[in-house]
Structure formats: C-alpha cells, structure tokens
C-alpha cells in the first residue's frame, strides 16, 4: 500500500506531466524520485518522442542519489526498446529500491515493466491514484487499445442549433473568448481535421495560436488535415508554413482514421464542416463533443451536424461532463451515449 508521502508524490508527478501538452505519439508521464526518508530528489517528465522518458529524466537529475530511492511514476515503466531504452531496465541499473506507479500500461508492445522490476528484486506498488493517472492519457489509452485515434468533435452554433448562414458563412458565430478557449484544446490534440467545404468557405488557419494571436512554433503545431476530394487552391491558409498539412482525398471516416493512425496520430480535433461531422457521427466514431453555443439566433441556415436521423427513435443522448460560461457563450463537453430505440408512440 502506498504511503501518504508516495500519494503526495504521485500528485506532483501528475501535475508535472500536465505541464506538457503534447507528447505525440507517446503518453504524458511524470516521475518523482523520493529518498529513503521521503524527501524529494528529482521530478522528471516526458516531453515527446525521442526525448528521455520521465523516469530517465528524473534519474539523470538524481545521479547517484537514485540508489535506494523510490520512483513514483504516473504510468507503469515501459519494458521495450523504441527510440529510447526500456525504463524498467534504467530503474534497475540506477539501483532504485521501490517503484510506485498509477496506470498499468495498456500498450502491449511496452507493457510488462512491473514484472521485470519484480524479477530484479524491486518492490512494486501498482494502481496508486490509477483513475487520475488514466485520466491524464484518456485519448492515448483509447488509441493504443482500439487501433484508431480518439475523436473530439468541436462545433459552434447559435441557440437554434445553426452553425452557418444560408449563404454558407460561419465566422464568427461565437465570441473572442470562445475562440481563445478553443486554442487551448487544439494545442492538446495531435491533428486538426476539417472538410474541404469548410476550408473553402472560411479559409481557416487550422493552427494553434497564443493569446496574442501568434502561432506556436512549427514543432508544437498539430498536423492539419483536410478531408475531401475537392481541390483547395494552394494560396489558402492551410498551406502556409505555420504548421504541417496532410490532404486525405476521402470522406470515409474509416479511411481517414486509418490514415491518421498510420501516421501515429492518437487524438484528432474534428471541426469545420457539418457534412464531415455527420459522416463521423453516423459511423459512431465521435468520442467526445465540445460545443460552443452563442446567445444568438439565425432562423435559417445549416445545422451544426448533418446526420442520417429519420425519426425521434434515432435520438442519441450526450452525457454531459462540463457546462461553463466562456465570455457570453456556453461551452458544453460531453460523451455521446448509445442510440435510443424506445417506443415513442
């Protein structure tokens, strides 16, 4: 059983991991090394593919002080060699006496670290603050266990559920505050996906910008993905040099998702285009919904989602997790539930 000191260290490890927004295609991980008397020796984090894993980052900082220490890690230490070596072996070589971790590694290619550590005589305590540790990497966990990226669909709409005017124009429905809020979510995704219709209508940048509207560095930008068979002129902003762009000439969600998982994309941010959103919705591959509702009416125009519902029995509920005012707008975050098939007579 974990001690109070180890639980506190796990919280610090989780907080440290959250400071890194994207670690594509790896999970976010934090590690705290504790001396035998419980004092903190080092805090390590993983910053992305090719960089040291959190355990190795902490061990490097600690040096010889790691011998006899306790490693508190948010994720089970990996047991495979990729761009870096296995963390389980690094902990063994450093002389760590005990390892406390949160989430059991769901990735079969990397799992087994706990077994390796125990075989080397190291005491292992799994599942500490496991729920919080798993929440840290919901999208990554889903991707490595399901074989497709986690899909977050974002939309903006008026109170009467419209996302575009009859002439197709759609910017801006929501406030500056809402659009700044979107940037924070975009920054945590691996790819921003939009349909060709939305790109042609609005010429969006589909990139991440800071509060001063300055683009983040190229290597911090999610991949921009334009889906559809309609040609986009090369002077459109999705082709600027701010971020990388991928064209997928298909509207089939399965084709799009396979293309992205092949490119090691774990979490996509789907926005721009009610037809594309409808295709993903109909295919049942939207895993999270984030909606921004403006206190305004259009009266006519295009709905935020163009699905295939024909009767009220096709109603699909959203399990709400968050309801927040963002400027004058309302932000809702939820998970699609199962299709309702009740008798409405």
Q: How would you describe this structure to a colleague?
A:
There is one protein chain. This protein has 345 residues and is of the alpha/beta class. It is built from ten helices and 15 strands. The chain folds into two domains: 4-137, Cytidine Deaminase, domain 2; 148-336, Dihydrofolate Reductase, subunit A (3-Layer(aba) Sandwich), CATH 3.40.430.10. Helix 3 packs parallel to helix 4 (113-119). It starts with a helix and ends in a 9-residue tail after the last strand. It comes from Aeromicrobium ginsengisoli. It holds the Pfam family dCMP_cyt_deam_1. Substrate binds at residues 170, 186, 206, 209, 271.
Short note summarizing the structure:
This protein is α/β, with parallel strands linked by helices and 345 residues long. Helix content is 27%, strand content 23%.
